[in-house]
Amino acid sequence: MKDQVFIPSLLLALCICGIEAIVLPRLPENIQDFKCEDDDIGFKFNLTDFAGDWYEALRLPNVPGMECLNVSIPSEVKDNKLSLDLNYVTILNSSWTLSREAVSFPWNNSTQYGIFHPDASEVSYKLVTTDYVSIAVVCGYGKNSVIPILKLFTRDREVSEEIVDLINTQAEQYGYSSLIYWEKQSLEECREPSGPVVGYLDCSVLTYFQLSIVQVRVLRKQDISPYRCTCKCR
Length: 234
Fold this sequence. Notes:
Blueprint: H1 2-16, H2 47-50, E1 52-60, E2 66-73, E3 81-92, E4 95-106, H3 109-112, E5 115-116, E6 123-130, E7 135-142, E8 149-154, H4 161-174, E9 181-182, H5 187-190, E10 200-201, H6 206-216
Parallel strand pairs: 4-10
Antiparallel strand pairs: 1-2, 1-8, 1-9, 2-3, 3-4, 5-6, 6-7, 7-8
Helix pairs in contact: 1-4
């Protein structure tokens, strides 16, 4: 699948742009055989170094419904669980709603190797690689995966135009630029709007991961249909 070729191309582009070199995972010689669910995909990370805020810069495939995702990772586990705080904007009927969630994973061997299986979700995620100071690459998959989910997280809120242009050029060469989406992350775009139309969503962990389930099932951009969140604002 063409989108699978994009993963190493993405990492190469970031290195070319001057970001600190990172240790790449071992990928098969035939990149088209890359599958996120394979046992050898995963990254044993140092929680202390990995802790802090990460901003989702890029996601593939391009599915509407969410912007401004920020994941906050603690420097230590509590009660043998790793708890992540998620902040993002849910787009419902053209209105933006600030959403907050907390999701916990057992601090077991799987989690320590960057493999995350959210409860009650069809989607699992794996940390492919990180340099701790600049980027983290995450892939996702599900039982009905047609193409893998790919997410690029950065320490900086906004990615430079140089990186955006280089990655977009790579994607265009492989013919899937329409699947890539650069997420809104500027303070101006992600700040809490004034006015009565926006509230906070206090939803279960399914909210974010339900949006991810839509991503797993998308093969072509024209297959995307609007997603409606079932949670109610308070």
